[in-house]
Design brief:
alpha+beta; 5-stranded mixed beta sheet
Length: 303
């Protein structure tokens, strides 16, 4: 452990590499963010180039993913605990979902449940809208000061991490009985989730998962493109959408130890209303196990 020297990270890394015997001739740099991908900052890279002029630097965006996309038993145990905390968080949000409470107060209740269980929050996305005149198609990444009202529906996306490994849950909550449109949309959410869930298992190709994602269109709805993604420590590849797949090649089929997240997100034809239903699964030798096993049969109704 050594100082970052007030942000001179490239120089610190270079100095450590110079201490090795023999000194490395090639240096691999993996992605800091695989969306893009994006790598280390420009200043750090320039310092590496300046300090190590004779070292070949190679950008390896999928290196970390290749090392971590298959989990061992200890890692799965941590993710299972993350799933338990995500469920506890959802239940805390539901308990706090009363008229007059504000979106940020629900996020605070969910966050407290995760921290109290020894975990950390990866995502706490919460948004509410009226079921009579809905104007929200996805949970709010920055929960607002909007006060809840009778007849609201609350969209949630909660990912809880334990020992750095996260699991996710999404489940809508209604204050009062679900309106017919909300109920119908939730039924479509469940239908798609179960169709995808039914094909999960070892040696399943991503294309087969894509083919199981067609329930939205049959119901006359559109959707958010992504229906499944992998989890390394947090959100990662591979990704499956309603019209395509994205993989690194070595992960184009499900294998034991992979952890994936189903995201069922129907959206109305006019694009102003949607729901989010999500669960996390580990692929096993002989099947699949849900790491966030909260019932999907019904909308969560309070009040």
């Amino acid at each position: 452990v050594r100082s970052g020297e007030d942000g001179h990270f490239g120089r610190v890394i270079a100095n450590r590499l110079k201490e090795l015997d023999p000194a490395p001739r090639r240096l691999g740099v993996t992605a800091a963010d695989t969306n893009g991908p994006e790598f280390m900052g420009v200043a750090a890279y320039q310092e590496l180039r300046s300090e190590l002029p004779d070292v070949e630097i190679e950008l390896l965006p999928r290196l970390w993913h290749e090392l971590s996309y298959r989990k061992g038993s200890e890692e799965i145990a941590a993710m299972r605990r993350g799933g338990e905390l995500a469920i506890a968080s959802l239940e805390a949000v539901a308990k706090a979902s009363q008229p007059g409470r504000r979106e940020y107060e629900l996020a605070a209740a969910g966050t407290e449940a995760v921290l109290a269980g020894g975990g950390q929050v990866h995502l706490m996305m919460i948004g509410a809208t009226s079921m009579a005149d809905p104007r929200l198609m996805y949970p709010n990444p920055n929960p607002s000061h909007r006060a809840l009202r009778e007849g609201d529906i609350i969209l949630t996306e909660i990912a809880a991490a334990y020992l750095g490994y996260s699991a996710k849950i999404g489940h809508p909550i209604t204050i009062g009985e679900p309106a017919p449109e909300a109920q119908r949309m939730y039924e479509v959410s469940v239908e798609v989730l179960r169709e995808i869930e039914a094909v999960l298992g070892p040696d399943v190709a991503l294309e087969k998962i894509m083919e199981a994602s067609g329930g939205y269109r049959r119901a006359g709805m559109q959707s958010r493109p992504v229906t499944l993604h992998g989890i390394d420590l947090i959100t990662a590849g591979p990704k499956v959408s309603v019209r395509g797949v994205s993989s690194a090649g070595f992960d184009d089929r499900l294998v034991p130890g992979m952890v994936v997240n189903i995201e069922s997100t129907p959206i109305s034809q006019d694009g102003v209303y949607g729901q989010f239903l999500s669960r996390t699964y580990v692929i096993e030798e002989d099947g699949v196990q849900c790491l966030t096993p909260y019932p999907v049969d019904e909308l969560l109704t309070v009040g």
